[in-house]
Design a protein that fits this description.
By secondary structure, the protein is mainly alpha-helical. The chain has seven domains: about 120 residues, no CATH class; about 45 residues, no CATH class; about 60 residues, no CATH class; about 60 residues, no CATH class; about 120 residues, no CATH class; about 200 residues, hpI Integrase, Chain A; about 110 residues, no CATH class. Helix content is about 45%, strand content about 5%. The strands form seven sheets. A three-stranded antiparallel beta sheet has the order 1-2-5. Strands 8-9-10 form a three-stranded antiparallel beta sheet, with no helix packed on it. Helix 22 crosses helix 23. The longest helix has 27 residues. The protein starts with 17 loop residues before the first helix and ends in a 7-residue tail after the last helix.
C-alpha cells in the first residue's frame, strides 16, 4: 500500500483528464443491479431495508418512532436520551410503549394559541417558556402543582410573530444564537469550531460548517432526513471520492465475506464529508481513526480501492518486501486465504537476500507455510549477518555457525530448528543455481553453506524404535461406543445447534474422515450405486486434496444426513456445505475444524459429569486398563473407525476388510500406517489366547493335547480351528478334500474360543438349507446341508461340555474371553441411528 505522502494528487490532475478516466474505470466496475430496493443508481443513495437480514438494521422499538438504527440497539439516540432524562423510573419495556411525541424534536409550534414560534421541550417557545418559569416561581409556595395548562388559562399571554428558523436542513427551531443557529446546533457548531484553525466568528465560518456538516433533506415534503433512515447519499461526496467509496462498499458486499452494516457505511461517509476529503487512494483505513473494531472493515475498503487504482494505473508502488498470498500462485490448500495474509521481508536489509527470496517465491508454485518459513528464517539470518558485518564475498563457515546458533536459540524445538536450517539451505542452493542472481551470488564462497553433519538440531531426544500403535493412538471401541450411546446428553443453546453438534459428531464417528474432511463435506455428499446403496462423497484434507474413494455407509448414516439436510431447509439455510458456518458473515463457508473439536470436548465433558465410564477396557496389547476419556479428540473417532474395519469378520470368522481396501477408505499415503490397525487386532487376540490354557477339541468334543513343538509340522490353522490332514497341511491349507466343510472332517480340531463363529456358521448352513428347500433341490443336497448342521451342533455341544467340565476359575476366564470376542465382532459392523428430528419438535430456531 502506498504511503500517505506518495498518493497521487487526483484533484490537481483534473485538467489532464486523469480524474475522468479514473472515475470511468470505477463506474465500469460497479454492478447496476446491486441491492435492488435498497440502492438507487440514479441518486446514488443507499437506503437500508429493515426487512433484509443482510443489512443489519432495524427500526427504533419505541412506538411511533420510525428512526432506523443498527440491529440490537433497540432505541434510537433521541429516544434513549429522553428515556434517561424524563422517564428514569420506567423500565425500557414500559418506556417503548409510550408513543414518541414529534413535538419533542421542535417540529411543532408553541402551545400558546396563534404563536408562530417553535417550542422547546415544554411545548413553549423560548420567550413564553421564560414567562411561565417566572409565574411558576411566584406561585410555587402556594400552588406547588402549578402547570402550563393553569398558566395558559389564568395569565394573559400574547402570541408572537414568527422568528427566523435555523438554517440547518430539517431543523425548524427558532434562531437563538448570534451565529444564526438554534440552541442545539449552536452547541454542535461551537464544538466543531474548536477543532478548526479558523475563528468561529470569522466571516463564512458558519457557511463552511453547514457545507461540511449538514445534509439536505431526503424528502422535502415529509421533512425526512437521511439520518432518520440511516441512508448514505454517495452523491453528496465530491468526485472521485464518491465513486471510490461506492466501489469499495459495493465490492466488499458482493464478495460476501461479511454483512453490510449500513450504520458503519453512513458513519464513514459522514466522517469523509466532514473532513473534506477528495480521494481515498493511498490513505490508511480511509483516513478514519478511532474505533478499532472498524479497522478490519476500513482496511478492506482501503485495499479494494488501492487494488483498483493499481489495475487502472498499472503502477504498483507497494513495498516489494511485503508479500501477499493473494498475488501469488500457491499450492492448493483447504485453509482459507485472507486478503492481507502473506510474508514480511522488511526485516531483511540486504538486497541480495531479498532478491533471492523473491525469485524463489516466484519461480514456481509454493506452499504458504514454506514461504512464511523462508521469510521468518532469513529475517533472522539477515539480522545475524548485519551485526557481523561480513561482506557477501567474504562469508564463510564462521558466519554460518552464527546463523545456525541464532536459529537454535530462537527456536528451541528440534523440529522447528530442522525446518529453519532447511530453509537456509533452500535459498542458498537456489541462489547459487539461478542465473539471474549471478551478481552477487556467484561471488559468495562455498564455505557459507549448510553442513548437514554439524548443522543439526540440538537437544533432540533419541527417537525410540518405531511402534505401530503410536501413529494412531489406539482408542478402545467400547469407549467410543459409550460416548455415542450417550450423545443425547449433549445440549447446546438451541435445538438447532444441538442437532447440528450431534449430527456432526455422528458423521465423524460413523465415517471416520479427518476433521477437516468432515467439516468440509458438501451438501450433496451422498451418492448411490446402481442398486440404490448409499455412499459418502468426500474430499481429501491432505495434499493433493483430490476426491477421496467414495465410502459405503450404513442406511442409518444416510438417514441421519438426510434428516440434518431437512432441518437446515426448514430453518431457511441454503448452503453448498453440509455443515455451514453461522458466523456473522454473508459468505457461504463451512464450519471450522476447531468447531468440531469443541463439540467433541463438550460431549466428553458432559459424559464424564453425568455418565462416566467406570469399567476397564482392553488396550492395544490386550491388557485391561482404565482409559482416560479426556485424551479423546476428533481424530480418535477416525482411528476407532479404522480399527473397527480391521477387526470386522464375516459369519465364518474371516476378516472382511483387506488392508489395501482399508488404505483406500482411510486415504493413507503409507501402507505401514494402515497395517498398524491389523497389528493391534493380532496383538489383542494373541493376548486373549495367552490367558487360557492351550486345548483343542476334536469332532466328537474330546480334548486333544497340544504339542507346541510339533504343531507347526503336523497341523495348520484354518477358519475356526486347526486341520491335521497330512496332505492339506503340506499344501498349506489349499488341498481340502471336503471343500472346507471342517465340521464334518475327522482331521479337524475346533478352537474353544471360536464358539461364536461356530454358532454363526450353523446359522448360515441353516439358511442355505432353507433356500435349497425353497428351490426344490434334490434330496441328497438337503441331506448334505442337514448333516452339516448336525455336525456344527455336535461341535458346539462338545465345546459347551468342555467348558462346563473346567474348574471354576478356568471356566470364568474362557467365558469372559468369549464374551469379549462376541462384543468386538458385534460392534465392528453394527450400524447406529440417532433421530435429529425429535430435537426440534416442530420448532425452527436456527442460530
Amino acid at each position: 500500500m502506498a504511503a500517505e505522502g506518495s498518493r497521487p494528487n487526483l484533484v490537481d490532475a483534473e485538467q489532464s483528464g486523469e480524474v475522468v478516466e479514473w472515475i470511468g474505470f470505477l463506474r465500469n466496475r460497479l454492478s447496476p443491479g446491486w441491492r435492488p430496493g435498497e440502492f438507487d443508481g440514479e441518486t446514488l443513495t443507499l437506503i437500508p431495508d429493515v426487512s433484509n437480514p443482510r443489512t443489519n438494521v432495524e427500526k427504533c422499538a419505541r412506538a411511533a418512532c420510525e428512526v432506523v438504527i443498527i440491529k440490537g440497539s433497540i432505541l434510537c439516540p433521541t429516544c434513549r436520551r429522553e428515556w434517561r432524562t424524563n422517564y428514569k423510573s420506567l423500565s425500557r419495556e414500559h418506556f417503548v410503549l409510550i408513543p414518541r411525541d414529534v413535538r419533542a424534536g421542535g417540529a411543532q409550534g408553541c402551545l400558546v394559541a396563534e404563536c408562530e414560534r417553535s417550542h422547546k421541550t415544554q411545548g413553549l417557545c423560548n420567550t413564553h417558556a421564560d414567562a411561565f418559569s417566572v409565574a411558576r416561581r411566584t406561585n410555587r409556595a402556594l400552588r406547588p402543582d402549578y402547570s402550563i395548562e393553569t398558566w395558559l388559562t389564568e395569565a394573559t399571554v400574547r402570541p408572537l410573530s414568527a422568528a427566523p428558523k435555523c438554517p440547518f436542513p430539517g431543523c425548524r427551531s427558532d434562531v437563538l444564537s448570534r451565529f444564526g443557529l438554534c440552541a442545539h446546533h449552536h452547541v454542535t457548531y461551537s464544538k466543531w469550531s474548536k477543532t478548526q484553525p479558523m475563528n468561529r466568528d470569522s466571516e463564512g465560518a458558519v457557511d463552511f460548517w453547514l457545507t461540511r456538516w449538514n445534509e439536505p433533506l431526503m424528502d422535502l415534503e415529509a421533512g425526512l432526513t437521511f439520518a432518520s433512515a440511516c441512508a448514505t447519499p454517495f452523491a453528496l461526496l465530491p468526485e472521485p471520492l464518491r465513486w471510490e467509496f461506492l466501489y469499495a462498499v459495493q465490492t466488499r458486499d458482493l464478495i460476501g465475506r461479511a454483512h453490510l452494516r449500513a450504520t458503519d457505511v453512513r458513519a464513514t461517509y459522514l466522517s469523509m464529508r466532514r473532513a473534506g476529503a477528495t480521494t481515498l487512494v493511498g490513505l490508511a483505513t480511509l483516513g478514519r481513526a478511532g474505533n478499532r473494531n472498524l479497522v478490519p472493515m476500513l482496511g478492506e475498503w482501503q485495499r479494494l480501492i488501492d487494488d483498483a487504482h493499481r489495475d487502472w494505473s498499472g503502477v504498483d508502488d507497494r513495498d516489494r518486501k511485503v508479500l501477499y498470498f493473494r498475488d501469488m500462485e500457491l499450492r492448493p490448500s483447504v485453509r482459507t486465504l485472507g486478503p492481507t495474509s502473506g510474508a514480511d521481508l522488511r526485516g531483511i536489509e540486504q538486497d541480495w537476500i531479498v532478491d533471492a527470496v523473491l525469485s524463489w517465491v516466484n519461480a514456481t508454485r509454493r506452499g504458504r507455510a514454506s514461504v512464511q518459513e523462508i521469510a521468518r528464517t532469513w529475517t533472522l539470518a539477515a539480522e545475524v549477518l548485519r551485526v557481523r558485518g561480513t561482506p557477501p564475498s567474504l562469508l564463510g563457515r564462521a558466519d554460518m555457525n552464527a546463523v545456525v546458533s541464532a536459529v537454535r536459540k530462537r527456536w528451541p524445538l528440534a523440529n522447528t530448528q530442522r525446518r529453519a536450517i532447511h530453509a537456509v539451505e533452500r535459498i542458498l542452493t537456489y541462489g547459487r543455481s539461478e542465473s539471474s542472481l549471478a551478481d552477487p551470488w556467484a561471488s559468495i564462497p562455498g564455505a557459507f553453506s549448510v553442513d548437514r553433519s554439524q548443522d543439526r538440531p540440538v537437544d533432540q531426544p533419541e527417537r525410540p524404535a518405531p511402534d505401530v500403535d503410536e501413529p494412531f493412538r489406539f482408542v478402545p471401541q467400547p469407549i467410543i461406543d459409550w460416548l455415542m450411546d450417550h450423545a443425547d446428553l449433549l445440549e447446546r443453546k438451541t435445538a438447532f445447534l444441538t442437532a447440528e453438534a450431534r449430527a456432526m459428531i455422528f458423521v465423524q464417528e460413523r465415517c471416520g474422515r479427518r476433521t477437516t474432511e468432515t467439516t468440509m463435506l458438501k451438501d450433496d455428499c451422498i451418492s448411490y450405486d446402481s442398486e440404490g446403496a448409499p455412499y459418502l462423497e468426500w474430499q481429501r484434507g491432505k495434499p493433493p486434496y483430490t476426491k477421496g474413494k467414495r465410502l459405503p455407509i450404513h442406511q442409518e448414516t444416510h438417514d441421519v444426513i438426510r434428516q440434518w439436510q431437512r432441518i437446515k431447509r426448514d430453518n431457511g439455510i441454503e448452503s453448498e456445505w453440509l455443515f455451514p458456518s453461522s458466523a456473522f458473515s454473508s459468505a457461504d463457508k463451512p464450519r471450522s475444524a476447531s468447531f468440531l473439536r469443541d463439540r467433541i470436548r463438550d460431549l466428553i465433558a458432559v459424559v464424564l459429569e453425568e455418565a462416566p465410564y467406570e469399567s476397564t477396557v482392553e488396550g492395544a496389547d490386550g491388557n485391561l486398563l482404565y482409559f482416560d476419556m479426556t485424551t479423546i479428540d476428533a481424530y480418535s473417532f477416525r482411528h476407532a473407525f479404522a480399527q473397527r474395519l480391521a477387526d470386522a469378520t464375516d459369519a465364518d470368522g474371516r476378516p472382511t476388510t483387506p488392508p489395501e481396501v482399508l488404505q483406500e477408505y482411510m486415504g493413507h499415503d503409507s501402507f505401514t500406517t494402515t497395517m498398524a490397525y491389523f497389528e493391534v487386532t493380532a496383538k489383542r487376540r494373541k493376548k486373549a489366547l495367552e490367558a487360557i490354557a492351550p486345548r483343542r477339541i476334536d469332532l466328537h468334543g474330546r480334548v486333544v493335547p497340544v504339542d507346541r513343538e510339533r504343531d507347526g509340522f503336523t497341523r495348520i490353522a484354518v477358519t475356526l480351528g486347526h486341520c491335521l490332514e497330512p496332505q492339506n497341511v503340506s499344501a498349506g491349507g489349499h488341498s481340502c478334500m471336503l471343500d472346507h466343510a471342517c465340521e464334518s472332517c475327522p482331521f479337524f480340531l475346533a478352537d474353544p474360543l471360536e464358539r461364536e463363529g461356530w454358532v454363526a456358521k450353523r446359522q448360515q448352513l441353516r439358511i442355505k438349507l432353507e433356500r435349497a428347500r425353497a428351490i426344490l433341490s434334490p434330496q441328497h443336497m438337503l441331506d448334505h446341508y442337514a448333516a452339516r448342521v448336525e455336525d456344527c451342533t455336535s461341535v458346539i455341544d462338545g465345546i459347551d461340555r468342555y467348558i462346563n467340565s473346567l474348574p471354576d476359575d478356568e471356566r470364568a476366564t474362557i467365558t469372559t474371553a468369549l464374551d469379549k470376542i462376541t462384543e468386538v465382532r458385534r460392534r465392528a459392523t453394527a450400524p447406529r441411528l440417532i433421530h435429529l428430528s425429535e430435537l426440534l419438535g416442530g420448532r425452527s430456531d436456527a442460530a
